[in-house]
Amino acid sequence: MSLAPTEPGPPPWRLLLGYVAPHRWSLLTGALLSLLTGATGLLLPLVARELIDDLAHDRTITGALLLMSVLVVANASVGALGSYVLRRTAESVVLGARKALSSYLLRLRIPAVDRSEPGDLMARITSDTTLLREVTTDSLVGLGTGGLTLVATVVMMGLVDPVLLAVTLAVVLGAGTVLGVIVPRINQASRRAQDAVGVMGASLERVLGALRTVKASGAEHREELTLHTAAEDSWRQSVRAAKWSAAAGNTAGLAMQSAFITVLAVGGARVATGVIDIGTLVAFLLYVFYLMAPIQQVVGAITQYQTGAAALTRIQEALRLPAEERAPAAPLPEESAEPAAVAFHDVRFRYADDLPYVHHGVSFAVPPRGMTAFVGPSGAGKTTVFSLIERFYDPESGVITLDGRDVAEWELPRLRSAIGYVEQDAPVLSGSLRDNLLLGNPDTDEAALARVLKTTRLDGLVARLPAGLDTLVGHRGTRLSGGERQRVAIARALLRRPRLLLLDEATSQLDAVNEAALRDTVADVARATTVLVVAHRLSTVTMADRIVVMDAGRVRAVGTHRELVAADPLYAELAATQFLATAG
Ligand code: ADP
Ligand code: MG
């Protein structure tokens, strides 16, 4: 999947160098150790020749043997050390990219999250970053050491016979042109293969996130097909990449063999006409052979880089999604523990430019302390009110204030630390009950925890569970009932000791007894905190200090239950259908 960046970013190699830069010295050390291994290897034949020479002339071979053993041991140890240092450096590059990406994704703006697939983002952090390992070792180091050897060999060839060098280079450049056509195809196929992995991650996330619904709907077979199609797409593209990589490797091999034959022909003619002697031709041909390995290495580095570049581009796309600005736009006000005041001033908002407005000029004011309820048909824009207070989204026009201060001017972490928010579906994270309760305030002491467990009526549940607070709740809290999840979410919000408590249909799944108890708890909290509640059950809101009636993105009326029953037909109708017209 493409995250469709607005404009092209810097080339992938710049991003790669950015990740490699902190490790440049260990990378250089690893590369030098590899070169050293090659050099000690090259010395061995010389010593072997010496040894055979000694034997032939009846001399003692102890010296040569000793030297040979030292070289063998040195070659092995330097080689092992070199590959360890390189691999370790490459893993550090992967680590750096993973850390940078995960930090960044946690700071993404919610609209960017709305538009992306979590499974695809996950694939970018886990699978695409893994590819950086090979890019670092094979591409960077391969290009470095291979390139160095290549240059050295070409210089030697030039010294032996410049004419034959020109002949060789002409053949090699011809092959280079062919490679120029092949290499972009490797990149393209790799990009598609990685994208298919992203699609697979997204489908997996979709299915595993709702496996019960998939099973209940009997949709396993269709979902299986989707997953298999993504896996096969990745396979097809990887096979294409393999095909082009193989073609690239063999083009290089073919070029070298052609160069050999050409040099043999041209060189033979030059020997025949007496321009060069036969020794020069033999030496030059040997160099053509020597050229083979570094050229293969450089071509390998380039093809490997194409795979890595595709991954780098995908990483870069994720890093260019809009993230939250966390620094304050203006000097911070004094930290306060007082209940907050909230107001909307003519707020217009839509979720995206191509979507209809959800708020058409919403205004209301909530003083510190007390309970304010938001009611209205579903889709009226109630949840959106809370999202805007949390600054998950910014309004198109109008101002939202907390303590009289535009929320856009608040430092985000501080704004959010003032608020306890229980979302509409009361999300619970996998982990233990305790993890969930202390998510927003890890330093809570046991006494405060016990108090909140009691007021949210979770104490009974905790006592019943064999592992108590350490019970694991499962993915998204599936091992809890809906009502239990809601109470956990409320307790979590209360433990933050918020100055503003936002409850979005937070008691919708509770039974009557628990709901009544929670209503008393919330009324208690509202004496010292500003509480905003969204509720579709009017029984929850009749005792609110004020009720804001919303409809189709507008505030219809504000008043107490009694006032609204008399003054607002929509509210009166809601109340009537819930048999509450005369209560309150
Ligand atoms: P309520 O809570 O009053 O039922 P919401 O504030 O949740 O209503 O939603 C108001 C409108 O905004 C609905 O029509 C809904 O489809 C739309 N909406 C809500 N969330 C999003 C979103 N993340 N992206 C696009 N549209 C959304
Ligand atoms: Mg809602």
From TrEMBL:
Alphabetized Pfam families for the sequence: ABC_membrane, ABC_tran
SMART domains linked to this entry: AAA
Keywords: ATP-binding, Membrane, Nucleotide-binding, Transmembrane, Transmembrane helix
ABC transmembrane type-1 domain residues: 28-307
Location of the ABC transporter domain: 342-577
Protein topology in the membrane: Multi-pass membrane protein
Cellular location(s): Cell membrane
Main location as per UniProt: membrane
Transmembrane segments: 25-48, 60-86, 163-183, 244-265, 271-293
InterPro entries: AAA+_ATPase, ABC1_TM_dom, ABC1_TM_sf, ABC_transporter-like_ATP-bd, ABC_transporter-like_CS, P-loop_NTPase, Type_1_exporter
Keyword Transcription regulation in record: no
GO molecular function (one): ATP binding
PANTHER family for this protein: ATP-BINDING CASSETTE SUB-FAMILY B MEMBER 10, MITOCHONDRIAL (PTHR43394:SF1), ATP-DEPENDENT PERMEASE MDL1, MITOCHONDRIAL (PTHR43394)
Name of the protein: ABC transporter ATP-binding protein
